[in-house]
Design goal:
- The complex is a heterodimer of chains A (112) and B (118).
- By secondary structure, chain A is mainly β.
- Chain A contains no helices and 11 strands.
- Helices cover 0% and strands 53% of the residues of chain B.
- Chain B is mainly β and 118 residues long.
- In chain B, the strands form 2 sheets. In chain B, strands 2, 4, 5, 6, 9, 10 and 11 form a 7-stranded mixed β-sheet that branches.
- Classes of the chains: A mainly beta (112), B mainly beta (118).
- At the A-B interface, strand 4, strand 5 and strand 9 of A face strand 5 and strand 10 of B.
Chain lengths: 112, 118
């Protein structure tokens, strides 16, 4: 059974710092992996999607990497801003499945 | 596009009452998902529809929960009777699955319905 774990559960950093969020999954047979952002009281917004054949994806100040063999993904946020404060969730799509298996998220606070 | 639209945004009801949550997916999307989010269990998939047909309802917790998708632009999730442990945020998401069967898979989420059962 696929399980997704995110560490740390919460993170507080000063503005301008570069930071890394971690996601690990137990079964390397995945179709893709997605990172989402969730703001309080709102839905999820897809940030980056990495196909199983890819190693990384970049969007602006965000860079996500994928190492299938070790069951790990990282989300790198450069030059963090207070507006980046949110909960970040990673989700794995197992092979041949439409389902997304979500981690419990990392709650990020960027202090001005 | 207005995105996935859910209503109501908040629902407070008493135990035993029927609750109906509504979702309008993004136009042109043919896959629809209902999720439940709680502090204890995180985000869980309840049911998945493809082309208005329920494909997998294994996540529906009990017979008190039912979901329908009468057409491509509307879905409901009903809880009857509701219980305090059903209190959660319920999300609807939609995506587009290609005709070749390869799921493009970026799911677009609605803002959710926060349900409180007293």
């Amino acid at each position: 059974k696929q399980e997704v774990t995110q560490i740390p559960a919460a993170l507080s950093v000063p503005e301008g710092e570069n930071l890394v969020l971690n996601c690990s999954f137990t079964d390397s047979a995945i179709y893709n992996l997605q990172w989402f952002r969730q703001d309080p009281g709102k839905g999820l917004t897809s940030l980056l999607l990495i196909q199983s054949s890819q190693r990384e994806q970049t969007s602006g100040r965000l860079n996500a990497s994928l190492d299938k063999s070790s069951g790990r993904s990282t989300l790198y946020i450069a030059a963090s801003q207070p507006g980046d404060s949110a909960t970040y969730l990673c989700a794995v799509r197992p092979d041949s499945s439409y389902k997304l298996i979500f981690g419990s998220g990392t709650r990020l606070l960027v202090r001005p | 596009d207005a995105g996935v639209i859910q209503s109501p945004r908040h629902e407070v009801t008493e135990m035993g009452q029927e609750v109906t949550l509504r979702c309008k997916p993004i136009s042109g999307h043919n896959s629809l998902f209902w999720y439940r989010q709680t502090m204890m269990r995180g985000l869980e998939l309840l049911i998945y529809f493809n082309n208005n047909v329920p494909i997998d309802d294994s996540g529906m917790p009990e017979d008190r929960f039912s979901a329908k998708m009468p057409n491509a632009s509307f879905s409901t999730l009903k809880i009857q009777p509701s219980e305090p442990r059903d209190s959660a945020v319920y999300f609807c998401a939609s995506s587009h699955r290609s005709l070749q069967g390869r799921n493009i898979n970026i799911q677009y989420f609605g803002a959710g319905t926060r349900l409180s059962v007293l």
